[in-house]
Amino acid sequence: MKTHLVILALGTFAALPLAAQSAPVASPHSTTAAHVDIKVNKSLASSVKVSGDSAMAIARANANWGEVSSAELKMMDKRLVYDVKVLNKSKRATDVAVDAMSGEIIKNKQYGGLKATVVHKDENKKLLNAKRDSAAKSPN
Fold first, then answer.
1. Cβ(127)–Cβ(70) under 8 Å?
2. Exposed, middle or buried, 108 (CB in 10 Å: 0-12/13-18/19+)?
3. Any idea what the Cα angle at residue 135 is, between residues 134 and 139, rounded to 5°?
4. CA pair distance 34, 14, nearest whole angstrom
5. Separation in Å, CA 30 to CA 41, 57, 100, 107, 111
């Protein structure tokens, strides 16, 4: 049983670079309402190897499969990273930084205590606004 899990995990890990070779930012047809806010110049943003959708999927996988509320492409410690906020079902927010070139997790911080409540509330507002904007743009 353990061997099967290890093989499955390795196969999933090996597939990440293939999934990361799509467009650099989240498409308007992605499955999430959140979009990537670009905080760097366009030429630098176009050099990423990991797409915004892939970065959000990596962040969700490392934050108990919560819902992405916001994401930014920015410089962090001389690295180009996606800073992704994920809202967990346990009313906590997780801040995950994903390297935009390799898909490596640079930071994975879950907030606790009073900070968790404040961050969750702020990020939940962003998520609701993104969903509202997404629904308004939908041609229904």
1. yes
2. middle
3. 105
4. 26
5. 23, 11, 18, 24, 27
Residues across the chain:
140
Q: What is the pLDDT along the chain (140 residues), one digit of tens a residue?
A: 444 433 444 444 444 444 443 333 333 333 457 889 999 999 999 999 999 999 999 999 998 888 999 999 999 999 999 999 998 877 788 999 999 999 999 999 987 777 777 887 888 888 888 888 878 877 65
> Using CA atoms, how far apart are residues 15 and 37, in angstroms rounded to an integer?
26
**Can you state the angle between helices 2-19 and 52-61, rounded to 10 degrees?**
160
Pick one of 3.10.450.40, 3.40.50.2300, 3.40.50.300, 3.90.1300.10 as the CATH number of 2-137.
3.10.450.40
CA–chain centroid gap for 5, Å, is 25
Residue with tokens 């079902």: 89
Query: pTM surpassing 0.70?
Result: no
